[in-house]
Amino acid sequence: MVFKSIFGQEKAINLLQHDIDSGKVAHAYLFSGPAGIGKMKTALQFSKATACLEGGCLKCMICSSFEARIHPDFKLIKKQGNFISIKQIRELEHWVVLKANQAEKKVVIIKDIECLTEEAANALLKTLEEPQESTVFISLTSNLNAVLPTIISRCRQVKFRAISREVLLEYLLNQGYDNKKARLAVNLSQGVFGKALDLMKTEKLFELRNVSLNCLRKALNSDPNQIGFLVESLLATIKKFQEKEIDNASFAPADLPPKLTKEMKAKIKRAASVKGQELLLQALDFWWLWLRDVVVFSETADRDSIVNSDLFDEIDEYCQNSEVRVSWCIVEKISEVKTMIKNNINSQLALETLLLESTAQLAKI
Ligand SMILES: [Zn+2]
Questions:
Q1: What is the distance in A from the centroid of ligand 1 to the CA of 39?
Q2: Angle in degrees, CA 175, 178, 181, rounded to 5
């Protein structure tokens, strides 16, 4: 079954499976629900089920090139900067009227549909009003309230729900993962299924946590003159992580034609460069979670409230020996710094400023 890799979204899957089984696939869907719970993965699987001549065999050329997002009958639209532009929708309009190349149906996935500009939204509405039999639209949003009601009303709605931490933990334990590590992964992922799995499957994210927390702890305890150097070395390590990702990603299924293999490699490389920014944002999340632990534990002394449960001793020690208020300063500014990084502000400068301003405030206390 094409959806067997999707976890915890039975209601959504049943609805989609029902549409497939009854031969009544709608021309437009809207998947809504929190980020990181499998909307994109489900959309991809659903695409294969509707495009594959065998109904989603997961083995054929169509299935594998849909998975790699390189099939001519597949299109993925993502925001460029903060918006999905009219230019992107115009290109889509041209593509929509084309006949399917090889697939049973063409599929377009529009990620973050709430980010359409007004002009783009109006153009898309027109396209949705004139359904093309050969094209299926799947729009995704983690902010349903921000989606235009006129768009919502033209789509079949599929709601994805947040997975509770208990269910997520149970899933990881059933997969045979170590209890202590699984609990930590559920905490650190803040219940986001994809991230929890990443934490369990690779050591990479745990390594990233070590490296980023090392930098933070040293910065909090050292001479401000050292902060530039500490940030530089954190960024260099993140770059190494990113390069490893590119190496690991430089493969393609052996049975793809050379042209597609080349395209796929290029796409993977582009994706890996985006990964660099994601890793940095994740490093900041690790800072945030650790500082949050410090703040919460210093106020409640409740051991169970600590997310980084394996680091209890050092958090306890830090709370006893250090000025906790500086943690507050950083916690409050981290989301601002994350936005700056998403807008491609120099990350060395952004991180240095964050740490320097906060430690300078500490000096005043
Ligand atoms: Zn197939």
A1: 20
A2: 115
61 C-alpha to ligand 1 centroid (Å)? 7
User: Residue 242's pLDDT is what?
Assistant: 82
Would you state the torsion angle of the CA atoms of residues 267, 271, 272, 278, taken in this order, to the nearest 10 degrees? 180
- Centre of ligand 1 to C-alpha 47, Å, is 10
Give the tens place of pLDDT for each residue, 305-362: 899 999 999 999 998 888 788 788 888 889 899 988 888 889 999 999 999 888 777 6
d(CA 60, ligand 1 centre) in Å: 4
CA of 62 to the centre of ligand 1 (A): 6
Kindly list the structural domains of the chain, giving each domain's residue range(s) and its CATH number in brackets, ordered by start.
10-159 (3.40.50.300), 202-364 (no CATH)
What is the reported pLDDT for 305? Answer: 87
Distance 262 CA to ligand 1 centre (A): 21
Q: What gap in Å lies between CA 286 and CA 205, rounded to an integer?
A: 10
The model's pLDDT over 178-188, given as tens digits with 9 standing for 90+, comes to 888 898 888 88
Contacts of 37 (CB under 8 A, 6+ apart): 8, 9, 160, 161, 162, 163, 192, 193, 194
Q: How far is the CA of 21 from the centre of ligand 1 (A)?
A: 16
Q: How large is the ipTM?
A: 0.99
